[in-house]
């Protein structure tokens, strides 16, 4: 089991654990801190975060900026990859394909999902991602492609 998943399990057993883990995870890649993410779920084949609608993630029309949404999707994918990647392997994102489907008018829940079959196709692992508003509208969806190889 990955050390990140171990930390998630330890933190979330504590009062305010998800909040504390969210802060710690945001420091792993400092640009994650820019979206003020809240980790909702981390387990094999699933990563989920929430981006609150704050001034720092808004665009000129007052909605959550598309690139902030993509940042959230990458963070969710990172949680999933850390929880799913075998200990003797490493992962690296190699590309992202997304479609902007609607305005992100509320906070967003960003979800990344895979199946065992996706990982069986390594070294190329597709991770399905989507960002959804609080009323259920999918605003961004796509695939983040991972490169999964043995550790040297």
Integer count of domains: 1
The low-confidence runs, each spanning 5 or more residues with pLDDT under 50, are: none
Physical arrangement of strands within the biggest beta sheet: 1-2-4-5-6-3
Strand percent estimate: 25-35%
What is the general shape? globular
Helix fraction, binned, reads 25-40%
Organism: Aeromicrobium panaciterrae
Protein name: Acyl-coenzyme A thioesterase PaaI-like protein
InterPro entries: DUF4442, HotDog_dom_sf
Report on this model:
- By secondary structure, this protein is α+β, with helices and mostly antiparallel strands.
- It is 30% helix and 35% strand.
- Strand 5 and strand 6 form a beta hairpin.
- It is globular and about 45 Å long.
- The mean pLDDT is 94.
Secondary structure blueprint with pairings:
Blueprint: H1 3-12, H2 17-28, E1 38-43, E2 46-51, H3 66-84, E3 89-100, E4 108-113, H4 116-120, E5 124-133, E6 138-150
Helix pairs in contact: 1-2
InterPro entries: DUF4442, HotDog_dom_sf
Protein name: Acyl-coenzyme A thioesterase PaaI-like protein
Pfam families: DUF4442
Note the main attributes of this structure:
alpha+beta; Thiol Ester Dehydrase, Chain A; HotDog_dom_sf; 4 helices; 30% helix; six-stranded antiparallel sheet; 152 residues; Acyl-coenzyme A thioesterase PaaI-like protein; single chain; 6 strands; globular
Question: What is this entry, summarized?
Answer:
It contains 4 helices and 6 strands.
